Amino acid sequence: MLDILAITMPIFLIIAIGYIAVFRNIVPQNVVRGMGAFVINFALPCLVIQSLIARDITDILNTDYLLAYGGGALIVFALGYFFARLIRKRSQENSALQGMGMSGSNSGFVGYPIVVQLLGPTAGVALALCIIIENLVITTLTLILGDSAQAAGTTRWQVLAKTFAALARNPIIIAILIGLGISISGITLPGPLISVVDMLASASAPVALFVIGGGLVGLKLQGLRFDISRIVFGKLVLHPLFTFALLGLMPDLDPQMKIAAVTFACAPMFSVYAIYGQRYGHEGMTAAALMATTSLSFITISTALWLLDTTAVFGPLP
After folding, report:
1. Which of 66, 138, 224, 236 is 20 to 30 A away from residue 188, measured at CA?
2. pLDDT at 236
């Protein structure tokens, strides 16, 4: 267990440092937002490109991984959405946000820094596959459901076109396409350009963790306790469990990729979850769920890794 804590503890200590820095006004919160923009628009895309160009295309397009990780996310999204919509009688926008919170992992900011310590270069390929599911499936589904509920006089096809147009401008999606294109073509980037990509990629993990901590300042755990508790439980327990179960149906998948999938599923939801909540007028619920899930994820991630290590169900951890 101490070996596991040696991996997870530094991640959450950097988050805590970010929180303290903003709380004590050592670093203003608007500066932290700028740091977040740097990660999303430059550092994380370079990390994705770096990971993809170093692998053969057959290693990258791993359908077993996509089916297991994507299937687990979709099952949990559906459970969250339909329970909120049919049982709790929440609005379509609220229900979509609950599904998103339970199924959309913060793979780039929290999952990757942990997985890269466990698995090394394998983490980059797994990250790119997770990002495909999180952006093209979970985020798209949320936006279609949320926007169509608010778009009076607009067809779902128009909402869908608008959603995909926004995704086409997403820096991480662009980075995936660039990385895949270079991998398929076999082009070798010039040395100075590779150095730039490597330098920006290396900044992604520590800066992202600092940003998460700073972003938690001012969020309040209040109201809608049942909904918030359900989102937290869905994200930290159900998402990893369903992913784990589906991985059992993929006997040919590399054990290291299975470990990566479960670990990414254990991560809290996107750090921009509260922004999506604000888009639909539910920022209180999403901000509170984000803070609670991020705080508790230290316990659940450490426990999940300890169980994987103790049972060696996918083989011993590296």
Report:
1. 66
2. 96
